[in-house]
TrEMBL record:
One of its GO terms (biological process) is type IV pilus assembly. The chain crosses the membrane at residues 21-42. This is Fimbrial protein. It comes from the Bacteria. Keywords: Membrane, Transmembrane, Transmembrane helix. NCBIfam families: IV_pilin_GFxxxE.
Length: 145
């Protein structure tokens, strides 16, 4: 008595159970085209997102400076050793700098090349740094829209 049941199939039906090499190659080519279109767009959104975070951090520094104004501006508790203490932006993307005087300040964010942030553009124009002054003027103006 046989315990294993053998299913006999037609020879033509048994040979058609896989994908051909051409079908697999077509699928790989379609995926490659989609990736080639999507990757540059995704990269641009990531760079723009980090710029937005740097702008928000600059505004946060400005608020902290104005909050602690006492006949002069002080960077105490904001930037220590060239590193922004209250910022959320990635230091590999932007280097923050704060210059204070008794009558004003300038906050500067310089894009870094370590992760390609220096290739960022605002309205198609490259920039070397983002600045914000005590008057609320941000440059380049295209980035502060």
């Amino acid at each position: 008595m046989e315990m294993i049941r053998k299913i006999r199939c037609k020879r033509m039906a048994c040979n058609e159970k896989g994908m051909s090499l051409i079908e697999i190659m077509i699928a790989v080519v379609i995926l490659g085209i989609l990736a080639a279109i999507a990757l540059p767009s995704y990269t641009a959104y990531v760079v723009e997102g980090h710029r937005s975070q740097a702008l928000a951090d600059m505004a946060k520094i400005q608020l902290k400076l104005e909050e602690n104004y006492n006949a002069g501006y002080s960077a105490t508790g904001i930037i220590s050793g060239g590193v922004c203490i209250i910022c959320d932006s990635d230091t590999d993307r932007y280097a923050m700098n704060l210059t204070t005087t008794s009558t004003g300040y300038t906050i500067t964010a310089t894009p870094q090349s370590t992760k390609g942030q220096n290739s960022d553009k605002c309205d198609g124009t490259s920039y070397t740094s983002l600045t914000l002054t005590q008057t609320g003027e941000g440059t380049p103006s295209a980035c502060w829209k």
